[in-house]
Amino acid sequence: QQQVKQSPQSLIVQKGGISIINCAYENTAFDYFPWYQQFPGKGPALLIAIRPDVSEKKEGRFTISFNKSAKQFSLHIMDSQPGDSATYFCAAQGGSEKLVFGKGMKLTVNP
Amino acid sequence: GAGVSQTPSNKVTEKGKYVELRCDPISGHTALYWYRQSLGQGPEFLIYFQGTGAADDSGLPNDRFFAVRPEGSVSTLKIQRTERGDSAVYLCASSLTGVTEQYFGPGTRLTVT
């Protein structure tokens, strides 16, 4: 049972473009939704997070959009750069301390 | 300050052997988590410590897996009678009590031959 579904599995964008990653969840107890960035051979690094009381959160080039009624949230990366090439994971937490992760999306930004 | 550190970075062991993986959390972080990440997958929760006690071990796959945190800081994940299916990257994370942000270490890549 996959509690957090992430799409697409991979994405290729040109430098300067917008990268969009989507996630959907089922468990209504979830109340914290972080995004992690992972480079090969490294651990996941916290990028940005949101709680359901707001519909959008922006930090620099990264924006989370949250739709509570649809139980969906997404990450937008504006002005994508080659250095953004990594695997991105959405996650959810609520009702317990553990994070439940999506399967990840490999982003490639071409120069 | 220093982040979460994990040792060793890589561990190769033979099927049936015993292994120990170590995690040093961020100084002052009372909560510690272990996750396992298989190739091409997201991390999967194993166990959560609050201080010295295991508050949630619901993710441990079977009784071959055990973890301790005797002094509320460093934690060791112990795997007995390793199997090839145990091969994965084992990640440790820590957080402040009452704060949801979890910070991950670089992981230990375990290969069981």
Radius of gyration of chain A: 13 Å
> Beta-strand percentage of chain B?
over 45%
Q: CATH architecture of chain A, please?
A: Sandwich
Q: Count every beta strand of chain A, where a strand is a DSSP E run of 2 or more residues.
A: 11
The DSSP helix count of chain B reads 0
CATH class label of chain B? Mainly Beta
Low-confidence stretches of chain A: none
Reading the helices and strands of chain B in chain order gives: EEEEEEEEEEE
Q: Briefly note the CATH topology name of chain B.
A: Immunoglobulin-like
CATH class of chain A: Mainly Beta
- Shape descriptor of chain A reads globular
Helix content of chain A: under 10%
Counting H and I runs of at least 4 residues, what is the number of helices of chain A?
0
Intertermini distance of chain A: 38 Å
Tell me the β content of chain A.
over 45%
CATH architecture of chain B: Sandwich
CATH fold naming of chain A: Immunoglobulin-like
Q: Are there runs of chain B of 5+ residues with pLDDT below 50, and where?
A: none
